Amino acid sequence: MTSLPNQSETYDVIIIGGGIVGSGIARDCAQRGLKVALFEREDYGYGTTSRSTRLIHGGLRYLEMLDFGLVRQDLKEREILLKIAPHRVQPLPFILPFYRCSLFYRLKVRVGMLLYDLLSYDKTLPNHRYLTRTETLEMEQGLQAKGLQGAAMYYDCQVAFPERLCLDNILSAQRDGAVVFNHTEVVDTLRGTEGRIYGVRVRNRLTGEELEFRGRLIINATGAWVDRLLNGWKTPLPLQLRLTKGIHFAAPLANKNALVLFSKKDKRLMFAIPWLGYSWIGTTDTDFDTNLDTVHALRDEIAYLQETVSEYLPQSNWSEVYFTNAGVRALVRDNRPGASESAVSRKHGVLLHTHGEGLEGMITVLGGKLTAYRDIAEEVVNRACELLKHRVEGHTGTIPLPGGERNDLKNLKAEVGRAGSEYGLTQAQTDYLVSLYGSEAYTILNRIEYDASLAKPLSPDYPDIRAQVVHAIEAEQAQTLNDFLLRRSLLGFTKDQGEQAIPAILEMMAAQLKWKAERVAEEHSAALAHIAITRQHREVVTKSDLST
């Protein structure tokens, strides 16, 4: 906790969890004038938010499940995010190739595409179209030609850096008066004589300091950790979630467009997506019941993805994997017998706890998708306002997120480029700053204006500069090396995952945060440990070794 609020105050809402849903709730609460505090055990966007396929999409496959409401919700939210976060969310063409498909299958896809366009009637993206075999191969020259009949092409969106989309919401909430803390774990609830929850006890995981905070309403937005949190408070509740694991890997770029692929082994849908100069391959969908804090990709899971993508793009070398990513989805539990992982609905749930459960005074958010986070947050805050008798409408769908005030990114990049050239920055460096900060890239240039040394690169291998480290600490609550590498910059997603920049970053963070040599060594070890986890596929180990 960097600066402590007045503990004698009572907050209207205390939010547990700083992922995309929790941060969206905090932003909505703060915009409506509620006094709100948020506590995140790790760092903002650390969990499922940072382990996704990095798409903002309606979910074409949910039409097959007849989940029209979910698809419509997501398509509506896709359009809203294009308007309020144009620096984060950009259109992306998708190609669904046909290989020896029956006429019935192609007609089914055609109907699905028409429904997708109809359900997104208010969109600004193009409608779908069909490609001949020749057109498909012209657009994706690496595709397997044998058996190819053509393809369907449609548009969804990509969020290359959802970690910073989460941070944008945190910063917006903070600017509207919310108090927000990362690396701060809620260790217990405070309960009155009648059992109602009236606050929380929190522990700073970096210092060990413990404090208590009072709140009229507690919102549990801990995602995949919901059941663990509820059971940790010794409240005997049935499990609310079904957890499934998904992995991705980054490989040399092999495709220009996003490709929709199906495994020949089990018919599961997956994607090959162009991302940061890589092909981003994923995802798997398997039940998960082990340690949430140590989830990582296993060799057989990687092999499953490699086998599928190599059938569609056989000319590429899929044995070269730069790094992997693994996360856990929180799905609302479906107790129907035999429901497969992929068939479980992605619909969210909002649980208002009762006195009989011993958790009166708490709302728990169950499940949900990255795409719909804003709408989910609005629903939760509407419910909170009813309980608190706070009659203020939400308007998060019309106010741009920090950095999203400009939707003319081309002009913005040109303007920031001209301004940055005065400090010796290249166009590539200023373009990178715009990709990170949007229209707020000027705040980085302002720091250089006062200290020219901050224009110095962190390493010749990257576009990142020293001003970003200072800004991350002073304006974005970066408190660890991994906070900066993985969730304030894109260094953690370079081919060497930022290793060459670590010495310079550590030197700056140590000076800014008054770290002693022991803390510097711990931070360095933690960063290398994360890198090692994402590279375990390169080592000759067994599955049992990786599972321990």
Architecture overview:
With 548 residues, this protein is an alpha+beta fold. It has helices spanning 20-31, 68-84, 103-119, 133-139, 162-175, 226-232, 299-312, 373-388, 409-421, 427-437, 441-450, 466-476, 481-487, 502-513, 517-534, 543-547; strands spanning 10-16, 36-39, 55-56, 89-99, 129-131, 148-159, 179-181, 184-191, 197-204, 210-220, 241-252, 258-262, 269-275, 278-282, 286-287, 323-332, 349-352, 362-366. The protein folds into 3 domains: 10-48 and 163-240 and 346-388, FAD/NAD(P)-binding domain, CATH 3.50.50; 89-158 and 242-332, D-Amino Acid Oxidase, subunit A, domain 2 (D-Amino Acid Oxidase, Chain A, domain 2); 409-536, Alpha-glycerophosphate oxidase, cap domain (Helicase, Ruva Protein, domain 3, Orthogonal Bundle), CATH 1.10.8. The strands form 2 sheets. Strands 3, 4, 5, 6, 11, 12, 13, 14, 15 and 16 form a 10-stranded mixed β-sheet that branches. Strand 8 and strand 9 form a beta hairpin. The longest helix has 18 residues, at 517-534. The radius of gyration is 23 Å and the shape is globular. It starts with 9 loop residues before the first strand and ends with a helix.
